[in-house]
Amino acid sequence: MVQAQPQLKTFADFLTHAETADGYYELTYGELVEMPPESYDNLRRALRLYDAFKALVEAERVCPQRLAIAMPGQPKNRYPDPTVLRPEHPDQMRSLGQAAITLEMAPPLLVAEVVSPGAENHRRDYYEKRNQYEWRGIGEYWILDPVVGQVTVLSLTAQGYNEVIFTGEMVVESPAFPAWSLTAEAMLALG
Fold first, then answer.
1. N or C: which end of the chain has fewer CB within 10 A?
2. How far apart are alpha carbons 75 and 53 in whole angstroms?
3. In angstroms, how far is CA 49 from the centroid of its own chain?
4. Mean pLDDT of 63-88
5. How far apart are CA 119 and CA 61, in angstroms?
6. Are 145 and 121 spatial neighbours (Cβ–Cβ below 8 Å)?
7. Residue 51 above 70 pLDDT?
8. What is the mean pLDDT of residues 74-91?
């Protein structure tokens, strides 16, 4: 017997289903698309960012991977690795009962993505997610790309995202986090 997949139209529908789902999914045109597990190396890079951000803001305002963020367009949600929250987000998520940022909540301060190898992953992180994060009003979007050896910092302005690329021993500069002191090389390293 084949079980029909539930028809989900909204982020609220998705959150209701996510409470009982195994794994992580993006809701795209009413269909659940399972997200593959992160590579070990990219997980280590994301955790290094998580630790570095905890030195700059309260630990409860830094979420590692798998925080669901509602998005305009398709898919209806994304899971950045990691996310820096606004001060009100932890209490809002406690009230919601889930680790999720709805469209009714203010956007996170910053999201970061570690690019996995492959043309599809490159396109998704550099174009699709960039557009959705900009539309969502997320103040900063960082793209860590170990394949090309660069960190791209996208800062939201009235005209859209302003892009600055950092490589090697350049200290990554963040308008939202001026005390950030890691170099691009340190952020991309595995050791």
1. N
2. 27
3. 12
4. 91
5. 32
6. no
7. yes
8. 93
